[in-house]
Predict the 3D structure of the following.
Amino acid sequence: MNNQSYTILSHYLKETSVFFSKIKLKQLLSSHPDRNFLYAMVNVLHELKIPTKTVAFVCVFCVLLICFSCNRSRSPSDFDTIQVDLTNPQRASLFDYFKHIELIPLETNDDVVIGFLNKIIYHQNKYYILDRHRGNNVILVFCDTGKFQYNIGSQGSGPGEYILLYDMIINPFSGNIELLCPIGFIHSYDLQGNHVRSSDRITNAYLRAIHNLVAVNENTYVFKSAFNHPYQLLFYYDFYEKKIIHQEYEENSFLRGFSFFCPFYEHLGQWYFYREFDNTTYKLGSYSLIKAFTWDFGRFNYDANKMEFPVFQNLSSREEYNKRAEFLNQLPYRILVQGQNNRYIMAQIMLSGGKLGNLV
C-alpha cells in the first residue's frame, strides 16, 4: 500500500504570530463538512489560555505546516491504513490546502454576546452556534454575512425549554435542529426556532448521562456517554421503541475525562467515530460500528487496551486528575480531533510533552 501525504503543525499554537477575532472561514466550512476540526481549534486555544477577546471564531492564520512523504493520487476513502512518519518533516503553506479564506465578522451588541464557540453548524446559508460558556446554554443563528438572526430555544423548565445543553445536530431525516440536554432529553425545533417536540427522558440508572448524539436513521440515535459502568461508551437508541438496542466500545476508565471533543464527524452523509487513544476510525452503521481506516504511526504505535495504568491512592480528585494527565502526556501521540473532506483526512494530535500538531 502506498503512503499518503500528511502534515503536522510546526509551531506550538502559542507561538503562532497572527490571530483574528470575530471571524469565519466560510470557504473552509463549506469544503469541510464535519466542522468539528474547526471549532476544536478554538477549544485548544482556550485550553492554552490564548487571549481571544469576545470572539465568534478564532483562526490560526499564518501557520507553518510540516509535511511528510506523499502520494496524493488516491482519494482518502481508498485507504484502510494511513501511514504517518512523524520523523520526516517538510514545510508547506496553508494555501497549499485552501484557495480562499473569507473573514466574516459576526454581529454582537449588548443583547447578542458570544461567550465561547462550543459548536458551529453551517447549514443553508446560516451559522448555528452553540454557546455553553458560563452557563449561557444558548443557540445563536447568524446569516452568512454575519448579521444576527435569532436565538433558538431558551433555558428553563417549561414546555419547549431546556435545563442544560451539551450538543446540537441538524437531523437530516427531519430537517429539524435538535438540542441535547445531558440528563436525557432531546429538544427539536424547526430551523426558524419554533419548538416541535421534546423527548421523554432517555437516561436511567444504566445510561446516566448523554454527552453527544448523532441520528443514523429516522428511528435510531447513537449517543456517547462517558460515565457508565460497565464502561461502554456508545449506545444505539430506538427513539420510537424508547429503548437501547445496542451498546459497544469499551474503554478503560483511566482514560475517561481526557477526551474533550465530540468524537463524531460527518462526511457526505456518513457519520464517523474516533477516540483520542485509538488509531482506528469507525463508520457509524445503523446497528453497530464498522471499521473505516487506521492511522499507522510506525514505531510510535501503542494499544491503550493493553497498557497497564498506574493506580493513585490517597489523593484528592484534582491531584489524581493531574497525575493521570501527567502520565497520558508522555504518550507519543493522542488524536484530539478529526475530520475529512473529498481531498483530505485531517486530524489534530497532541505529541508527547504537550506539543500540538495537525495531520492532513
